[in-house]
Amino acid sequence: MEKAQYLDWNNSIQILKKAYEAGLFVLIIGPKGTGKTSLVRDFAKSMNANLDSINFSLRTRESHLVGTKTLTDGTVSFDEGILIKSMRQGDLLYLDEINSAEADVLLRLDEALDDRRQIMLKESTGEVVRANQNWFVIATINPLTHSGTKELPPQILSRFPVRIRLEYPPENIELEIIKKHVSGVNDSELIQAIKLANTLRQAAAVEELFYSPSLRETIAYGKLVEKGMSPKEAANYVFGNVYTQWGNIEYQKVSDIITSMFGN
Question: What predicted TM-score, i.e. pTM, was given to this entire model?
């Protein structure tokens, strides 16, 4: 199934194009499920650019970026990592959740991101790899409230002078986004779920709840209703049950909200 096109409700693609033309790397900041990855994919498509991506975690190592030595039939060779390949080819490099990376990984990445756009392959021949002039980098970060995230060091932040803040869209825009994925569901039933999601998001923002539902969840709700599930059931399965992770009191809070909005 073809992915639905990103709905650029806050003109982010135009900002990315201006940054690309100016040779300025971009940092996209926002909570999970606000469409950061979809935005980058659609920007790459609009620019007819090859997209390389890496999703950072505590397990990401320098070798994932730069490369590693391999031994095949007695011959030692060096398999270049995604950072080096993208620099050589002039690809669009997408660094997803960069603030989940360890300090040593960020330090090596910083070498490539500075104004010289070059990196030395100390793991191999010592060659200095200089980036193709078309090389462009977009990174995303989640807020520090998200598990596993860390504050980015100032020197890394400075490598991304253009910053896009991506929040959850207004209700009417979220409705349009859901309708790109769902058909045959009444708008009123979708709006009901959006209002529930926003209620939960607002409660999470002031730390009354532990979890904030994303656009993925309002879309999932719509797909379940599209398949014949009642709105109340879909709301329970998509929005309610996850709060069981934090215990019965948390779950009951959300269950009461769902009942008040969808009835018994």
Answer: 0.85
